[in-house]
Amino acid sequence: MFFGTSYILQQLFNGIVLGSIYALLALGMAIIYGILGLINFAHGALITMGAFCFYFIFSDLEWPFWITLLLAISFGGLIGYLLELIGYRKLRGSSGLSLLITSLGIYIFVENLAKLIVSPQPYAFNVPNFLNQIINFYITFRVIDLFIIAASIFIMSIFAIFIKKNKVGIAMRGISENVETAKLVGINVDQVIVWTFVVASSIAALTGFMWGAKYGQIGYDMGFMPGVIAFVAVVIGGIGSIPGSLVGGFLIGLIQTFVVSFLPTGWSIYRDAIVFTLLIIVLLIKPSGVLGRRESI
Amino acid sequence: MKINIFLSENNTKMSIWMPFVSGICILLLAATILNAVLDNYSIHIITIIGIYIIAATSLNLTNGHTGLFSLGHAGFMAIGAYTSVFLTYKVSLRAAYNLPVLPTILGGAEFQWPFLPALVAGGLIAAIAALIVGFPVLRLRGHYLAVASLGFMIIVASLAKGMKGITRGASGIQVITRYTSIWNVYIWVAITIFIIWRLLNSNFGRAMLAIRESEISAQSQGINLMKYKLYSFVIGAFFAGIAGGLYAHFTRAIRPYEFSFTMTFFIVIMPIIGGSKNLYGPVLGATLLVLIRYMLKPIEEYLGIYGLVELIYATLLVMVMILRPEGILKEKN
């Protein structure tokens, strides 16, 4: 089988777009895992909620695009805050397993609440026309693709500065190194954990918009797979390393796109399965991930 | 350390087999009475409860007793279901339903397996799959198993969709002969509980509990972590395969999306709500949750609010986690 250069470039571009979304999700997963040691299944729920929040404000209330986007992101942050306050804070000090189970419960709760309130059918996701404009420049893409890449780079840069220079960011790094020591030097751990959830959740809500805009439809269970795959990206990139989780996200985006576009048609149903096969292979060969700290076995 | 689940220091042979034999007698007596008294629908629910008791009790071997959190149980059930159905499917129907005949090594074109060996074969294949997945994943500390086993379940579901030759893809397999009855389900319930009860009261079980309490101190006692984690994962998968086979021969139709995250979640929360450190916790959890499902299903359908059952499960789960983290039944000392 032979593929032309433009086709390969096109798929590379598509892979980077999908990878940007995964990388943003993985970023949120990585900071929560770094601080609480929690695989936050509820992260996927924020994707769904962000997408539906945007849908109802933009399509039903017809508010301007940028305000809607900001509202959707803040809504995600608010939900993240509430989940921390109502759910996770009560479990502080219990085993990591109870946190994991609770996050699973929260995910199922949100998914089925969405199913109950909206409907089991998928919704068509409208975005302003300028985002749907098609551009032909060697390869074909829409403005939304550029928006996704640009927004991802922007958020990643902001986050890099935040974690290096900002007081809360530095405290986050401190807690992920060692909670006890962080407490000893006077860091307000609870406050930093709240901030972590707010940041991660608002980014997840934004990716919900991106996902809907990219695929044109949203549904009550849309967030599950991206959320889980984001954690796989964290593991593949290397637990404890934020650049690693970004690398993992891009890697998975590229691999999923290539599976669909370069392998025979019958293979496209394996696009999620391949991600998890990759996970098992990585755990077998290099359990610390591509860029991770060494994990004792 | 040699494992002999049938002998440990303070048990005589009598005190081991007596509960098993009397348990089976009581169960079968109860089944006879219920069979005579109740209508078909209630029998149906009781049989479903039995199947989920097998699934939940075996899942609890890893999730509750060894302290590993697996989300892949529906995947193992799918393997058991598809394997056993492939072996027992009626020769006369195979051509009409596009299912290939058995290869010579499994008995040839004119042969269909009896139910029991096919069921056990399904369990064994599930156990082998657990061995292959467990080996890389269980080496790590932390909850990698949760995501990796969830991934395993997704891989199995994709394969069930993709391997159209033997699974008929997304349309699934229909008109499976109904071999499962209240009798064989509850005999398997007794076997599962008996074996897990014996395991927990042997060196093996004490090693598992030690791993749950602290991996480091277990290791310093000379317990081979990998060995016991892998054993509990594989034994759990075997009984999941059995439960899957029973399920397939009861509902008479299987589709790939049935063995999904919803099913895994359903099974995972049973031991947690019932009490995951108690042998009978999963039994209670399975009974309770299946009953809730069948009681709420008419309301859900009448009001057209789909998702109500799962919503109540999730609420129940989060409430149990916050208010009574050990579940309804506490650990027996």
CATH class of chain A: Mainly Alpha
Overall body shape of chain A: globular
Supply the number of helical segments of chain B: 14
What's the CATH architecture name of chain B?
A: Orthogonal Bundle
Largest interface: A-B, 46 and 43 residues
Strand fraction of chain B: under 5%
Helix content of chain B: over 70%
CATH fold topology of chain B: ABC transporter involved in vitamin B12 uptake, BtuC
* Record field, number of beta strands of chain A: 4
Tell me the number of strands of chain B: 0
Observed structural traits:
heterodimer, A: 297 residues, mainly alpha, ABC transporter involved in vitamin B12 uptake, BtuC, two-stranded antiparallel ribbon, two-stranded antiparallel sheet, 12 helices, 72% helix, globular, B: 333 residues, 14 helices, 70% helix
Layout of secondary structure:
The complex is a heterodimer of chains A (297) and B (333).
Chain A: H1 5-36, H2 43-60, H3 65-86, H4 96-117, E1 123-124, H5 129-132, E2 134-137, E3 139-142, H6 143-165, H7 167-177, H8 179-184, H9 189-215, E4 217-218, H10 224-237, H11 242-262, H12 271-285
Helix pairs in contact in A: 1-6, 1-7, 1-9, 1-10, 1-11, 2-3, 2-4, 2-9, 2-10, 3-9, 6-7, 6-9, 7-9, 10-11, 10-12, 11-12
Chain B: H1 13-37, H2 40-66, H3 73-88, H4 91-94, H5 115-137, H6 144-162, H7 164-167, H8 182-200, H9 203-213, H10 215-220, H11 225-251, H12 261-274, H13 281-303, H14 308-323
Helix pairs in contact in B: 1-8, 2-8, 2-11, 2-12, 2-13, 3-5, 3-6, 3-11, 5-11, 9-11, 12-13, 12-14
Detailed description of the structure:
The complex is a heterodimer of chains A (297) and B (333). Chain A has 12 helices and 4 strands. Chain A has helices spanning 5-36, 43-60, 65-86, 96-117, 129-132, 143-165, 167-177, 179-184, 189-215, 224-237, 242-262, 271-285; strands at 123-124, 134-137, 139-142, 217-218. In chain A, strand 2 (134-137) and strand 3 form a beta hairpin. The longest helix of chain A is centred in the first third of the chain and has 32 residues, at 5-36. Chain A starts with a helix and ends in a 12-residue tail after the last helix. The model of chain A has no long low-confidence stretch (mean pLDDT 86). Chain B is mainly alpha-helical and 333 residues long. Chain B has a single domain, classed as ABC transporter involved in vitamin B12 uptake, BtuC, CATH 1.10.3470. Helices cover 70% and strands 0% of the residues of chain B. At the A-B interface, helix 4, helix 10 and helix 12 of A face helix 5, helix 6, helix 12 and helix 14 of B.
